[in-house]
Design brief:
- It is a single chain.
- The protein is α/β, with parallel strands linked by helices.
- The protein has a single domain, classed as P-loop containing nucleotide triphosphate hydrolases (Rossmann fold), CATH 3.40.50.
- The protein is built from 9 helices and 11 strands.
- α1 crosses α3.
- The longest helix has 18 residues.
- The structure holds guanosine-5'-triphosphate (GTP), magnesium ion and zinc ion.
Length: about 325
């Protein structure tokens, strides 16, 4: 069985080193490797989301009956230094990911183990934290993000306050508070344009038919949308997932956020274009559960809201966890 190398994305025979790029391959890759891509404009919240997602995969292990750990030392070191320390020890935001930062291109590789009675099932999960600018041109997306083709799932992160109608609603509610909004994205960085490029990249040479990769369209930073959402919004209720994905909970949230996205996306592009995918789920998450101070300090330790929802759905789509 061939595997996709997480460093050069060539299809190679499993062995200790990649025959194409020479990188050392963690032995777990031989069993399976599922690559998950997190795509979104610059400042959409990718780095913070990845930081929290990985921590939550560990912390919630008992709830889901899995164990989750780094597959190599590089992953341990990268995660500690770039993600965990700033957020959990220094209580500070993570720096912007620079396009020229070679380290940011290294994969974070984890093993997810399930125990079914005496049987053990494993999957290797690979994450990449790309700089948002890399999604600003089709050439860049095609060249620099070849892993997209081979993804087992994509989390498309959308900062709601980068969307035109959400900004209008915010300013109606808080007149004159432009400064509190994230910068208005330049044209080629608009969420709708990045989504179109992502579709083109995933469609690849296949001209007909829907895109088979499951896509979790996820509003990030929903703590900052409190002004629009009521406390009864399903996302603010405790999640029902335990030992697997609660399908009722998933549907309630997905309907809610699909509708919300149609309202705040003035161009109505995202939901319309999402029909190009065979499998779509809508989600809302917050990595931090707070708006960091302008100085980059957190007000308190991260209090994530529903960080695992998109990932649970993708694991279910890949047959790794149950849906009930
Ligand atoms: N309110 C709120 N703000 C957040 C949250 N997560 C991130 N932010 C803010 O959004 C900014 C950008 O987040 P990043 O995770 O760096 O965004 P990114 O998508 O990695 O950006 P690039 O590295 O430029 O591609 C952060 O500096 C935070 O100020 C959240 O959960 N809630
Ligand atoms: Mg980043
Ligand atoms: Zn390789």
């Amino acid at each position: 069985m061939a595997i996709i190398c997480p460093y050069c994305f060539e299809s190679v025979a499993p062995s200790a080193r990649c025959s194409q790029c020479g990188e050392t391959l963690p032995s777990q890759l031989k069993l399976s490797n599922l690559m998950f891509s997190i795509v979104g404009s610059t400042e959409s919240g990718k780095s913070h989301y990845i930081a929290i997602l990985i921590e939550q995969m560990k912390r919630q292990a008992a709830r889901f009956g899995w164990s989750f750990h780094a597959a190599n030392d590089e992953t341990i070191n990268l995660y500690e230094r770039r993600f965990k320390r700033p957020l959990y020890e220094s209580l500070a935001t993570i720096d912007k990911t620079q396009t020229g930062d070679r380290e940011a291109r290294r994969p974070l590789i984890y093993t997810l183990c399930f125990f079914n009675g005496s049987q053990e099932q494993r999957a290797t999960l690979v994450f990449y934290d790309a700089a948002g600018e890399r999604f600003n041109s089709q050439d860049e997306i095609n060249r620099a993000t070849r892993y997209l083709y081979n993804s087992a799932g994509v989390i498309f992160l959308v900062d709601p306050l980068q969307m035109s109608e959400a900004r209008n609603l915010f300013l109606k509610r808080f007149p004159g508070e432009e400064k509190a909004l994230p910068e208005r994205p330049v044209d080629n960085a608009k969420v709708g344009n990045i989504f179109t490029r992502l579709i083109n990249a995933l469609q690849g040479r296949q001209l007909q038919g829907k895109i088979p990769v499951p896509i979790a369209i996820t509003l990030s930073k929903i703590d900052a949308l409190r002004f629009l959402l009521t406390d009864e919004a399903p996302v603010f209720l405790p999640p029902f997932h335990r030992g697997g994905l609660s399908l009722a909970d998933f549907r309630r949230n997905s309907d809610y956020f699909g509708n919300l996205l149609s309202v705040i996306d003035g161009d109505r592009e995202i939901v319309a274009n999402a029909r190009r995918f065979e499998r779509v789920g809508y989600f809302g998450v917050s990595a931090l559960g707070q708006n960091p101070q302008k100085t980059g300090r957190l007000q308190f330790k991260p209090r994530p809201i529903r960080p695992l929802d998109p990932m649970l759905w993708l694991l279910w789509q890949n047959g790794l966890i149950d849906g009930k």
